[in-house]
Each structure stands twice: as structure tokens, then as C-alpha cells.
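Whiteboard transcription, Tuesday session. T.W. wrote the C-alpha cells on the left side:
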């Protein structure tokens, strides 16, 4: 099942569950009033307020966290692009005979890095591209170490090129781990449970009139379900409708820049 369908079914289930709990709460309250027409709700408001406040706090917490992680993932794409571009430019410090092979390795490496994320949600294919990129990292590192120590290399080559390559390699681990950073499952379970509990309490308090207000009941459940849907979609920006794919364009632009550079150098 795709991520979009799973999130849709989860939030649809939440929507229907909230409607059910609203109705259960309303009927429970009506039954209580029939048994004791003089029953009052003294002290109930404090309990309702506490549950709704906790629900609001958890919604704000999960949305804020998902949004922050979404922004962080976009920033990491830009950071990786800058790291690769910086390391590529510093290849000019190496002897001319070593540069073509390294530039071609960089081009293949960038293709592999782009494929890692373009192949999602096919995790197996993405892992294959990641393994290929890791192999190319080792190859580039070995080539760069040899070239930076060769005759004709600039004196600053080891000082400038190798740290840039190290940053380029490190950012891949950062990005990989960033895709796995999510709140514990218990947070989402608690969010769903609080939404249902709040529905039960809201339904219990909706006995002012004999006719149920479907507008308010449906509106409350729909707003909550949409909010949870957006949170889940932002939390997994490579799988849902809200995506960070647009920021991959900077990597593609760098790839085109590399290709033009290699072509120009080959014509000299």
C-alpha cells in the first residue's frame, strides 16, 4: 500500500471514529439526562478544557516538529549541492592528467545521489543507488588522495580538496539519517486517542438541543482529520503529496553544469 493511501485510510478512519465518538457522547449525555433531569455539569468544564488543551498542545507539537524537519531536509539538499560543487571546483588544484577521471567520477556520483531520492518510494531501488554512491565515494577519495600527492599538484591541494571531499561524504550520512527522523509511534497513537477522547467529551456536551448538529459534528471531525493528514504528509515529504522534490532541481542544475564543464574541457 502506498503512503498516500495509508495516510488517507488512517485519517478517514479518524474522521469516522470521531463522528462515532461524538454520537456516543451525545447519546450517553441524553441517557443521563433522562435518568436524572436535574443533573448538572459542574466541574465537567475543567476536564473538557484540560483534554482539549492537551489535544491542541499535541497538535501544535507534532505540526511544528514536522514542519521543522521538512525545512531541515530542504536545507540539507542545498548544503549537499554546495559541498559537491565546492569539491568539484577544487579539482583544479590537481595535476591535469588526474582531473578527467575524477570529474567523470563526480558526474557518476551525482547521478547516483539524485537517483537515491528519485527512486523513492521504491526503497530497494533507492538502497541500490545509495550503495552505488557509497562505492563512488570511496573511489573518488582514493583518486583524490593519490592525485593531491602527485607531482604537479598545488601545495594547498591536500588542505583544500580533502576536507571538501570529507564534507561531501559526511552530508550523505546526515541526509540519510534525516529521512529516518520521526516522532516515536506513541506520539501519533496518543494524538489519535486524544482526538477520539475529545470527540466523546464534545458529544457529551452537545445536548442543548434535541436535534443533533451535523454541521458542527462533521466540521469538528473534518478539521481534525485534515490537520492530522497534513502532519503525516509533511512528516514523510518523499512519499506523500507535500514533497521536497522541487529542491532536487539544484542537484540537477549542478549535474548539467558538470556535464557542460566536462564537455568544454574535453574540447580543449
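and on the right, the sequence the group agreed on:
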Amino acid at each position: 500500500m502506498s503512503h498516500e493511501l495509508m495516510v488517507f485510510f488512517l485519517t478517514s478512519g479518524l474522521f469516522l471514529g470521531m463522528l462515532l465518538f461524538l454520537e456516543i457522547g451525545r447519546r450517553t449525555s441524553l441517557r443521563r439526562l433522562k435518568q436524572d433531569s436535574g443533573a448538572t455539569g459542574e466541574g465537567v468544564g475543567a476536564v473538557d478544557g484540560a483534554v482539549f488543551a492537551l489535544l491542541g498542545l499535541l497538535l501544535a507539537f507534532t505540526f511544528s516538529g514536522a514542519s521543522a524537519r521538512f525545512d531541515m531536509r530542504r536545507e540539507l539538499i542545498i548544503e549537499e549541492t554546495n559541498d559537491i560543487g565546492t569539491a568539484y571546483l577544487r579539482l583544479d588544484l590537481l595535476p591535469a592528467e588526474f582531473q578527467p577521471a575524477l570529474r567523470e567520477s563526480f558526474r557518476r556520483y551525482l547521478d547516483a545521489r539524485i537517483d537515491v531520492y528519485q527512486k523513492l518510494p521504491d526503497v530497494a531501488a533507492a538502497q541500490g543507488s545509495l550503495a552505488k554512491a557509497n562505492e563512488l565515494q570511496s573511489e573518488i577519495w582514493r583518486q583524490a588522495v593519490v592525485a593531491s600527492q602527485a607531482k604537479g599538484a598545488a601545495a594547498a591541494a591536500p588542505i583544500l580538496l580533502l576536507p571538501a571531499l570529507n564534507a561531501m561524504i559526511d552530508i550523505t550520512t546526515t541526509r540519510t539519517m534525516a529521512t529516518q527522523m520521526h516522532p516515536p509511534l506513541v506520539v501519533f497513537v496518543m494524538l489519535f486517542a486524544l482526538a477520539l477522547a475529545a470527540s466523546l467529551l464534545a458529544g457529551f456536551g452537545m445536548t442543548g438541543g434535541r436535534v443533533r448538529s451535523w454541521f458542527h459534528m462533521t466540521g469538528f471531525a473534518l478539521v481534525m482529520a485534515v490537520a492530522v493528514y497534513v502532519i503525516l504528509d509533511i512528516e514523510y515529504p518523499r512519499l506523500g503529496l507535500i514533497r521536497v522534490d522541487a529542491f532536487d532541481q539544484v542537484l540537477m542544475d549542478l549535474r548539467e553544469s558538470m556535464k557542460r564543464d566536462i564537455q568544454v574541457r574535453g574540447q580543449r
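Someone added at the bottom: The chain has one domain: 3-25+45-267.
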